[in-house]
Amino acid sequence: MSQPHEQRANETAREGREIQDKVEARESRSFKSDGEDKKAPPQTGARPYPTPPMSGKHLEKSGQEADLEQKPMWDAPYYKGSGKLQDKAALITGGDSGIGRAVAVLFAREGCDVAIAYLESDQDAQDTKAAIEKEGRKAILLKGDVSDPAFAEDAVAKAVDAFGKLDVLVNNAAFQQHADAIEDLDYQHFDRTLKTNLYGYFNMAKAAVPHLKPGAAIVNTGSETAFKATEELLDYSMTKGGIHSFTRALSASLVKKGVRVNAVAPGPVWTPLNPADRQGKDIEQFGAKTPMGRPAQPEEIAPAYVFLASPQTASFITGEILPVIGGY
Ligand code: NAD
User: Looking at residues 113-129, what average pLDDT do you find?
Assistant: First the structure.
């Protein structure tokens, strides 16, 4: 090897060690500070949001928000409405609690009447109805099972009857129950998840579409579990992937009618869903693994639904899946 080449090789090798030393020195500093002065998760919102440990109380299914020890934050006191859904009418499945409740409240604040379809939590449904009325809009409650096509038809007919039309359908009701292995996932469990999360969305869309006029919108609730494999949520993840595909496919056919179809894919959100799935100790660290170091509150997810539902903000957006997951 010629002299200049050897000299250059030595310099490059030395530079490699210099870079390694710098990185290792930095790492040993951060390793030391890890235990000593661990930083609290950052606060990025219009008001401070709770960080883990979350209250570990386990809920019996179907999970009533009124029974949660640590109440989800849904009323978004800082959020000002600006008529983005003025004089429109929406139907929200699973709108009694959690994400659905926060969406119902922001829709009402944006000028929309809201019909809530829910499974059984009468107290939650009444609380949401009162919150919609407090925003100055009409609310009706529709109790039933979205996996039953007859209920879907009836719910849509009642909403159209009460409000004179239907402009927005939010498919949001869900069943989630973990199982450690495929051997533990029996047919009843698998069937309930698919019936609620897939048949339910299909039934509601099928019943609603004949009433939707140009400018109307469907917003589906997907999930980040559709992107990331969650081994204990085999059936649920499968339905959420299906919802994302359903969103794309339905958007392609309804665009000709002037109806937009999109989905929000939330990360971990503090609602009754997970306390009604996991045992208390398992949910204490719920959301801690997100880059934000905490779960979202429902009021942080709801604006994405307003954005996708409103013809003022999303008129050129259809077939999209909007992740609201606290970072990558
Ligand atoms: P939630 O428990 O507050 O809402 C679920 C709702 O579904 C309940 O209000 C219940 O009334 C309704 N429901 C269940 N089965 C039904 C049925 N057969 N018929 C009619 N209604 C039925 O929980 P949430 O977290 O607000 O869930 C809303 C949506 O968000 C779901 O689609 C869920 O998969 C999705 N999601 C939640 C999270 C999270 O971490 N909470 C994360 C990603 C996606």
Answer: 98
